Amino acid sequence: MQTSVLVGMSGGIDSTAVCSMLLEQGYRVVGLTFVTCDASFAAAEAAAALAKRLGIEHYVDDVRDEFRQQVVQPFINSYLTGTTPNPCVNCNRMMKFSLLCRWADRLGCEKIATGHYVKIQEESASSGDEKRYYIVTGDDPRKDQSYFLWRLTQEQLSRCIFPLGGWKKNDVCSYLGVNNLDEAGKDVESM
Fold first, then answer.
1. Which of these ranges, 69-78, 158-167, 174-183, has the smallest mean pLDDT?
2. Which H helix or E strand runs over 45?
3. pTM higher than 0.85, yes or no?
4. Domain spans of the chain, in order of start
5. What pLDDT, on the 0 to 100 scale, is given for residue 1?
6. Side by side, which strands form the sheet with 57-62?
C-alpha cells in the first residue's frame, strides 16, 4: 500500500521540491497551505497552482485568528516585557506541525513533510521497544533550520519526513530546473 504524506506547501522553492521528490519516491502526496495573514493568500494561490501542475490534491486552511493568538500576540507580549521572542520555535510546535498532524489524520496521511533543511535521527530507547527521534543539522550549513524545530514533540517527529536534509540549496534549485519546475516559487522564499 502506498504511504501518504501531507506536505506543508508555502508555494516556494523548497516545498515544491519536497512534493516532487516524494512523488518520485512513490509516495501519495497531498499539499496543505496555511493562511496566516491577509498577505499569505497569494502564497496559497501559488501553492494551489503548483499542486495542480504536480497532479496532487491541495487544501488551504485559514488560520489567521489562531496564528494571531498563538504566535503574534505572544511575540508582542514578549517584547513588551523586555525579552527577545523567537516566534518560529513556538509556531512550528504549536501551529504548523500540530495542524499538519491534525490535517494528516483527517486526510488519512501517515506522514507529514516540510521543506526544512534538517534531518531526523531515530534511535531505540533503552527499553528497546520505544523509539526516540532527534532533529539533526542538515547538510547545508547556510540553510540549517534545526534550531527552529527543537520544541517538536516525539509524536510530531515520528511522523516527519525532511527530504531536503541531505541537500544544499543550490542543488535543490538545480533539481527544480531539471524537473521543469524552476519557475516554482521564484518570487517566494520562506523565511
1. 174-183
2. helix 41-54
3. yes
4. 4-64+97-178
5. 78
6. 57-62, 28-35, 4-8, 111-113, 160-161
> What average pLDDT does the chain have?
93
Return d(Cα 21, Cα 114) in angstroms, integer. 12
161 pairs with which residues across the strands? 113
- Domain 4-64+97-178 class in CATH: alpha beta
User: For residue 124, is pLDDT > 80?
Assistant: yes
116 near 80, Cβ under 8 Å? no
- Strands, E, within the chain: which ranges? 4-8, 28-35, 57-62, 111-113, 118-124, 131-137, 160-161
Letter for the amino acid at 161? Answer: I
Distance CA 71, CA 58 (A): 25
Question: How high is the pLDDT of residue 66?
Answer: 96
CA distance 70 to 60: 19
Contact 30, 47 (CB under 8 A): no
CA distance linking residue 65 with residue 88, whole number of Å? 17
* Cα gap 98→13, rounded to integer Å: 23
